[in-house]
Design goal:
257 residues; alpha/beta; UDP-N-acetylmuramoyl-L-alanine:D-glutamate ligase; 6-stranded mixed beta sheet; 3-stranded antiparallel beta sheet; globular; binds pyridoxal-5'-phosphate; hydroxymethylpyrimidine kinase activity; transferase; hydroxymethylpyrimidine kinase; EC 2.7.1.49
């Protein structure tokens, strides 16, 4: 069994955040450990309240895990506090972690609710992008990081390349929020662009799908797949799971594309 370290916020509705990641990692047969950075009261549609934890308890969780558990990949999600990217980068270096690191630069939920202090993007870019095997922004986060408005699939290709060149790291842009009959995710890796496209599942609730794509990619990287293969397998595995998702209510379903 392989161990995956998940760092992020608690989503009480358990679709996104640490709970969503832990379910994904468990479903894929790995053992997930978690470092909780904040507790979010939310449901698929709205963030109601948020409480962030002091960085001392984040450091203690890090020690508790790293002193005992072998870690084959790390998935970093919602950090909220601007001081945390530097703190986590220091801990990763202190423990000399060599495993692949998936950095999900969580800035806002799909509904636009903020999940980070203002200025978080600079702290992530400075401290965690250089350590990342891949950075996985959604469309809105890619727009904030690049300063470019994304309106069509071609824009995603260009922005993935620009971000990779600007930050000298691989970028996977999760394009699920772009309307259309398919969902398109674009990876820029070692100078090449890879396009992952599957039919959109109508009436699916997308909450947490971005988190799960990133954590599934972390599992497949830990298993030794190279990045394009890991993303492809993560996307196709999630596609099957989303088809079978729990139906929780009509209020948040997207209109058919
Ligand atoms: N809540 C938490 C704790 C998260 O980490 C994330 C991840 O981006 C979200 C909510 C956003 O979820 P979504 O945009 O899929 O609704």
């Amino acid at each position: 069994m392989i161990g995956i370290l998940i760092i992020g916020g608690s989503d009480c509705s358990c679709g996104a955040g640490v709970q969503g990641d832990l379910k994904t990692v468990t479903a894929l047969g790995a053992y997930g450990t978690t470092i909780i950075t904040c507790v979010v009261a939310e449901h698929p549609g709205r963030v109601e309240a948020l409480y962030h934890l002091p960085s001392s308890i984040i450091e203690s969780q890090f020690h508790s895990i790293l002193d005992f558990f072998p870690i084959s990949a790390i998935k970093i999600g919602m950090l909220y506090k601007k001081e945390l990217p530097q703190k986590i980068a220091e801990l990763i270096q202190k423990f000399k972690i060599k495993a692949p690191i998936v950095v999900d630069p969580v800035l806002a939920a799909g509904n636009g609710d903020s999940l980070a202090e203002p200025g978080m993007e600079e702290e992530l870019a400075k401290n965690l992008f250089p350590l990342a095997t891949v950075v996985t922004p959604n469309l809105e986060e890619a727009e904030i990081l690049s300063g470019f408005r994304i309106e069509n699939p071609d824009d995603i290709l260009h922005v993935a390349q620009d971000l990779s060149e600007q930050y000298q790291s691989s970028f996977l842009i999760k394009g699920g929020h772009l309307q259309g009959k398919t969902t398109i995710d674009v990876l820029h890796y070692k100078g090449k662009t890879y396009n992952f496209e599957l039919p959109r599942i109508l009436n699916a609730n997308p909450h947490g799908t971005g988190c799960s794509l990133a954590s599934a990619t972390a599992v497949f990287l830990a298993q030794g797949l190279d990045l394009p293969q890991a993303v492809e397998k993560a996307k196709s595995t999630l596609y099957e799971k989303i088809k079978n998702q729990l139906q929780i209510g009509p209020f948040y379903f997207l209109p058919p594309a």
